[in-house]
Amino acid sequence: MANINFQEIHDLLVEIAYEAGRMITDARPSIDVAGTKKNSADIVTETDQAVEKMVSTRLQTVYPNYEFIGEETWKPGMKLTDAPTFIVDPIDGTTNFLHGFPHVCISLGFVLDKIPSVGVIYNPFLDELYTAIQGQGAFLKRPQKERVKLPIRQPAEPLGDLNTTLIAAEWGTDRYGNNFDVKVQTFTKLAAAQQNGGSMVHSLRALGSAALNLCAVASGGLDAYWEGGCWAWDVAAGWCILNEAGGIMAGGNPGDWQPTVDGRLFLAVRLAPSGQKEFVEKFWDVIGNGRMVYES
Predict the structure, then answer these.
(1) Residues that bind Mg(2+), according to the entry (predicted)?
(2) pLDDT, averaged across the chain
(3) What is the tens place of the pLDDT at every residue in 194-215?
(4) 92 is in an annotated binding site
(5) pLDDT at 38
(6) Per-position DSSP letters for 172-198, written without gaps between them
(7) pLDDT average, residue stretch 74-90
(8) What is residue 3's predicted lDDT score, i.e. its pLDDT?
(9) Mean pLDDT confidence for 254-262
(10) How far apart are CA 254 and CA 204, in angstroms?
(11) What is the pLDDT of residue 153?
């Protein structure tokens, strides 16, 4: 579709992100009144729903002909197409939000031809704003500091063996079955001592927000983020930021070099002057014959 102004979309998303941030920080969520979707680890609050309603109303007022996919209004059978589409997670890190752990954000992505083209992610508790436009780089704006280009750690170091890396990986909300078994086995192999057949990574991080994990990889603070089970609204904005910071996105299952935004299986790797592809292959070796399968 011609005449799509990514800069105007970016600027509107930034404005919306700050408004959503005020709604999130003004809220007083309670574990006692929070609702659940599938189980006790899959939580939704009134604030999630209110923020998404505000976001969708503002976007559809300005862009009535664009598609909208939001976590709280998504229904089974809704599919991502090549059409211009806003993909939104009103609160990524809802469990953190409930517990007062400040790893929380709103994730606002714009996808064209299924390619993440604009990404805006805002953590209102830390007042950190991550942004990217396709072909224009990725940036971080922090309180009382100038906007900086990502990655923060420059020059980026080469990626070597897994035992020199810091990796994010989340448990997810499905805590049984094959997918959970693959995660547990992979976590164990990554963490275990090399004399016991493990990779002995520096450490694993599970901070509870896919979008902010992707931002941490884009920033260079994390070397990689492995995920199975998250959704398009968890990764659309962060994927754009990762790409524009020089990172790469591979599939969460071995052999997948062309993951899709709605594919639910991801391995994000930071910028490096060398070793990105080799890192992915080493990580896939740890997974071995395990394969996660998620319905999209």
Answers:
(1) 71, 89, 91-92, 234
(2) 94
(3) 999 999 999 999 999 999 999 9
(4) yes
(5) 52
(6) -S--SHHHHHHHHHHHHHHHS-GGGT-
(7) 96
(8) 85
(9) 98
(10) 20
(11) 87
Which residues are registered as beta bridge partners of 133? 118
80: phi then psi, degrees, rounded to nearest 5: -75, 130
Query: Rounded to whole angstroms, how far apart are CA atoms 91 and 94?
Result: 6
Complete domains list, the chain, with CATH: 6-149 (3.30.540.10), 162-287 (3.40.190.80)
Closest by Cα among 230, 225, 204 to 214: 225
Could you tell me the end-to-end alpha-carbon distance of the chain, in angstroms, rounded to an integer? 26
24 is in an annotated binding site: no
**Tokens 């509870």 map to which residue?**
208
Query: Is 11 annotated as ligand-binding?
Result: no
Structure tokens at 238: 């962060």
Helix orientation angle between 210-219 and 232-244, rounded to the nearest 10 degrees: 10
Which amino acid, residue 89? D
Q: What are phi and psi of 247, to 5 degrees?
A: -80, 175
Q: How far is residue 89's CA from residue 123's CA, in Å, rounded to a whole number?
A: 12
Catalytic site positions: 71, 89, 91-92, 94, 234
Provide mean pLDDT across the span 89-110.
95
Q: Is 234 annotated as a binding residue?
A: yes
Write out pLDDT tens, residues 178-193: 999 999 999 999 999 9
Q: In angstroms, rounded to a whole number, what is the distance separating the alpha carbons of residues 29 and 26?
A: 10
The predicted structure's pLDDT at residue 30: 65
pLDDT reported for residue 205? 97
Give burial (CB, 10 Å; 0-12/13-18/19+) of 54: middle
Cβ atoms of 177 and 138 within 8 Å: the answer is no
148-149 and 166-169 as β-strands: parallel, antiparallel, unpaired?
Answer: unpaired
Token pair of 198 as six digits:
């493990």
Estimate to the nearest angstrom the gap between the alpha carbon of 224 and the chain centroid: 12
